Amino acid sequence: MDKKHELLERYFGYSSFREGQEQVVDAILSGRDAFAIMPTGGGKSLCFQLPALMLPGLTVVISPLISLMKDQVMALRAMGIQAAFINSSLTTEEYRAVCAGLRDKMYRLLYVAPERLELEGFLSVLSGIDISLVAVDEAHCISQWGQDFRPSYLKIPDFISRLRVRPPVAAFTATATEKVRSDVERLLSLRSPLRVTTGFDRPNLYFEVIHPDNKFEALLKLLSPRRQKSGIIYCSTRKTVETLCEKLVLQGFPATRYHAGLEDSERRQNQEDFIYDRRTVMVATNAFGMGIDKSNVGYVIHYNMPKTLEEYYQEAGRAGRDGERADCVLLYNLNDVRIARILISNSNENPELSDEERRELIARDYERLERMIGYCEARTCYRGYILEYFGQPHGDTCHSCGNCSVPYSRREATREAQMVLSCMVRVHERLGYYVGQGLITRILLGSRDKRIRQLGLEDLSTYGLMRGQDKAFLRLLFAGLEDQGYIVKSSEHGAVSLTSAAKDVLFRGKRVEIPVRDPSLLEPKAPKKPVPAPMDPEDMDDDFNELLSALKMLRMRFARAEGVPLYIVFTNATLTELARRRPETMEELQSIPGIGSVKAQRFGQELISVIRAHRKNP
After folding, report:
1. How many whole angstroms from its chain centre is CA 8?
2. CATH 1.10.150.80 residue spans of the chain
3. What are the angstrom distances between the C-alpha of 184 and each of 30, 51, 201, 228, 499?
4. Domain 207-405 in CATH: superfamily?
5. What torsion do the CA atoms of 519, 521, 525, 530 make, to the nearest 10 degrees?
6. Contact of 420 with 444, CB cutoff 8 Å
7. Which of 212, 433, 511, 539 is 20 to 30 A from 526 (CA-CA)?
8. Rounded to an integer, what distance in angstroms lies between the CA atom of residue 550 and that of residue 193?
9. pLDDT at position 351, please?
């Protein structure tokens, strides 16, 4: 066995590399730059952590968030690897201790935030230290075309140029369009890098979009069968986070909250409560989560639609990092679009941007918003829509998303389409301009909405013309009319207007068909699961579940004794494999993925004792 495979097994507990990992590791060890795009949970961190054990000097890992550094350093130490981080959370004494450890060559890896690279004090700490590798995590943050642009990432090349010898530079990300990929290579000044893209797909994630009339009721229906799981609920505003968290607590859910408006101490406490499973529901804005290594997140629910598909996929991807099946559900309505447009119009206020750059960025944001809306209103495979966006080939169906589980069928809707188009004509004649889909819908349904009365639209001949019709059907009707080119929606204001083709429907009776799903899916319910991998019969009985429960109890005792989260000790996937294979020797134990020699030595005998006792007393 060569050195890298020996270390892979000893520290990380794996007998073989995942797709793409070995190529990246070999490139780094040969002194070559590398750029790896791997899905969340695909093993990006190992690509720089393992070389760090083989290279002679220090590996500096540039990471965007304090929480990520803490999680990864904690996990490395649990595996017996010396690592440290330097950030604003350290006390003066802790900072000095890390600096002393660096001078004594105690650490293999040092995690830092990009802002730290500009400080002269930090540069002086590294001045006498050999740096063998610079790893840039979440590398998409260097591009202003990415969803998490961090200007401090632009200073990374300056930092590298000030090192005595330029080491290999390796960049890693999970989500990047072609434009962002090009920016990463150019802005980081990568030199003929090895490029590895293992794909964007996360087969263990189930995707669904629900269009509820009452989002909170829909959320309760989704959470009730998931009380035993950890999950994240994303909201677009701080106010929504506050309100929703309070309502969930009143309903008996162990929820906590996270947003940028909280005091630092409360944010840290709430995050720790979630990571250590003291609170299993995190209600948060997108300020929470980038780089969070908590592997046992069983679901991510978006209470509001994000502004971009990159943002959505990265946030949804925080579910199922341990490889177990997990659900990604988005609750969507037209108010989400309105909020997103407001957020875009109020963004890009950076004084360093020229007026032309600001207009260009806003236009880009509206374009990406349209792609996000397209996902929410898609009638084809959700997974395929995401992969198409990132430029990855895919099949027509994945068999494990909402649209593939219950596909659409065609319904004749010519008369209803004429009603919608006629209403749009009448409103335009009255006001002199087009309005949004939501207002047209309310007029057709006969709503007593205040704005309808203010605009004098309640006396239109089309007012109440579709009273009693289902809102979900009207949503599908609008989407079908847009897909077929009869109406067009403004990306900036959301107003819907008629095209010349609409005359064929209004005056020539052209037939209109729209895709509809099983009516039962218009009501929210727990998404169907993907088809699981085959298991032995013994894996599916009460005996298996009892052993798994006993192993989870033992893991909890280990975690409390070590003062670390459960997933740092063992992931759920590792425990499932233990319960399935039931090793009774140390050699058998170390063949379980995720159990290296270090963890086997620390926890092995007790694990084996529980398994043997269970076998004797089934």
Report:
1. 27
2. 537-616
3. 21, 22, 21, 40, 40
4. P-loop containing nucleotide triphosphate hydrolases (3.40.50.300)
5. 140
6. yes
7. 539
8. 47
9. 61
The CATH topology of domain 409-516 is: Arc Repressor Mutant, subunit A (1.10.10)
Query: What is the residue type of 90?
Result: L
| CATH class of the region 537-616 | mainly alpha
What does the pLDDT read at residue 146? Answer: 63
Q: Does domain 3-197 have CATH number 3.40.30.10?
A: no
> For the chain, which residues score pLDDT lower than 70?
1, 145-147, 287, 289-293, 347-353, 407, 518-541, 616-618
Query: pLDDT tens, 449-478?
Result: 889 999 999 999 999 999 988 888 888 899
pLDDT at 148: 73
Q: Between 382-389 and 355-376, two packed helices, what is the crossing angle to 10 degrees?
A: 160
Q: Rounded to two decimals, what is the model's pTM?
A: 0.75
Cβ-based burial of 238 (10 A; exposed 0-12, middle 13-18, buried ≥19): middle
At 598, list the tokens: 């270090």
Tally of CA atoms within 13 A in the half-sphere of 164 that contains its CB = 9
Give the residue among 588, 386, 401, 425 at the shortest CA–CA distance from 507: 425
- Determine which helix (DSSP H) or strand (DSSP E) holds 331, and give its type and residue range: strand 326-331
CB 256 within 8 A of CB 273: yes
Q: Alpha-carbon dihedral of residues 47, 48, 49, 55, nearest 10 degrees? A: 120
- DSSP assignment of 101-163, as one string? HHHTT--SEEEE-GGGGG-HHHHHHHTTS-EEEEEESSGGGG-TTSTT--GGGGGHHHHHHTS
Sign of CA dihedral 399, 218, 302, 319: negative
Count how many Cα atoms sit within 13 Å of the Cα of residue 596 in the half-sphere of its side chain.
Answer: 21
Reading the block at residue 20, the tokens are 């793409």
From-to residues of CATH 3.40.50.300 in the chain: 3-197, 207-405
Residue 289: what pLDDT?
63
| Cα of 110 vs its chain's centroid, Å | 25
- The b/e string for 434-463 (b: 16+ C-beta within 10 A; e otherwise) is bbbbbbbbbbbbebebeebeebebeebebb
Provide the residue type at 562 as one letter: E
Q: Which regions of the chain carry the CATH code 1.10.10.10?
A: 409-516
The strand pairing partners of 327, in sequence order, are 206, 299
Write the pLDDT tens digit of every residue in 244-263: 999 999 999 999 999 989 99
CA–CA dist 182, 171 (Å, integer): 12
Joined together, the tokens standing for residue 210 give 């629900």
